[in-house]
Amino acid sequence: MANQIPDEIQNDPQLTKAIEQLPWNYNFEIRKTIWKIKQAGAKRVALQFPEGLLLYACVISDILERFAGATSIIMGDVSLPRDHAKNSRLPSCCVDDLTAKALGADFMVHYGHSCLVPIDVTTIKMLYVFVDITIDVSHFATAMHVAVTELKHHFHDIVVPQAKPLSPGEVLGCTSPQFPDRDALVFVADGRFHLESAMIANPSVKAFRYDPYPKVLSYQRQIYGREAIDRAKSAQTFGIIMGTLGRQGSPVILNHLTSMLDSCGKTYFTLLLSEIFPDKCPCVIGSTLIEVTH
């Protein structure tokens, strides 16, 4: 079977010892990655990490270079200017295959969220590693059991929503399922970025966040720029920002927005930007801005 990892990789004791340098509860799929690199005959591999996983990048790079026989390039979420990188909130689903190719890579490994950019449209061979992280499931189940016991008269059924092509229960900052018929949402995460996406998509649903690290279940309030929304209702000229960084921009959404503005008799212009900063937009002050992503 072509995709089956060979025994010499699967059972290599030296590789096993090298992998032990990484956290036991993080699944970086090292053996699969080595096999895919060898299958592709790759010589220069780009490794793209989200900010939260960059601390493991050097260890993974050393392992792959040693056991896959290819040199590696370590990349962040996207290629940002140094002075802007610290302010970036770009998510880990931004595949930067164009930069990887420009750097001479012939294979790319993307660590983080789902493959929103299919491998058949990227400019080089790709491997997506989702990096499953094991948590204390029993504690989460206990916390949920206590919550359900207290609120059992208010809940009759539980669902795990899905927004394809994402996996069930998976949410991105730009892609969230809608479930308006639900009363509450329980979100498992150590941050708010992706939860906010789900809350925006479901404004009438109460949201709770379970943080698996301190093991805390908390109620989350919705924070929206309602004043900006009210101003947009009476605006006549709209600036549509089309993201150009890491395949962020969606031409389909752009066309949909321009069609909506045309039907409302509004004027608009399209602005191509890698990322939004106040000093980049002096020419559009006074216009209402809309950001276009996937």
SSE topology sketch:
Layout: H1 7-10, H2 13-19, E1 26-27, H3 30-40, E2 44-48, H4 57-68, E3 71-75, H5 82-85, H6 97-102, E4 107-111, E5 125-129, E6 132-133, H7 137-151, E7 184-188, H8 193-201, E8 206-211, E9 216-220, H9 226-234, E10 237-243, H10 251-263, E11 267-273, E12 288-292
Parallel strand pairs: 2-3, 2-4, 4-5, 7-8, 10-11, 10-12
Antiparallel strand pairs: 1-6, 8-9
Helix pairs in contact: 3-4
GO molecular function, one term: metal ion binding
Family: Belongs to the DPH1/DPH2 family. DPH1 subfamily.
Catalytic activity: L-histidyl-[translation elongation factor 2] + S-adenosyl-L-methionine = 2-[(3S)-amino-3-carboxypropyl]-L-histidyl-[translation elongation factor 2] + S-methyl-5'-thioadenosine + H(+)
Could you explain how this protein is built, in words?
With 294 residues, this protein is of the alpha/beta class. It has helices spanning 7-10, 13-19, 30-40, 57-68, 82-85, 97-102, 137-151, 193-201, 226-234, 251-263, and strands at 26-27, 44-48, 71-75, 107-111, 125-129, 132-133, 184-188, 206-211, 216-220, 237-243, 267-273, 288-292. The protein has 3 domains: 7-133, Rossmann fold, CATH 3.40.50.11840; 137-220, 3-Layer(aba) Sandwich (Rossmann fold), CATH 3.40.50.11850; 226-292, Diphthamide synthesis DPH1/DPH2 domain 3 (Rossmann fold, 3-Layer(aba) Sandwich). Helices cover 31% and strands 20% of the residues. The strands form 4 sheets. It has a 4-stranded parallel sheet. A 3-stranded mixed sheet has the order 7-8-9, with no helix packed on it. It has a 3-stranded parallel sheet with strand order 11-10-12, with helices on one face. Strand 8 (206-211) and strand 9 (216-220) form a beta hairpin. The two termini are 36 Å apart. Mean pLDDT is 79; it is low at 78-92.
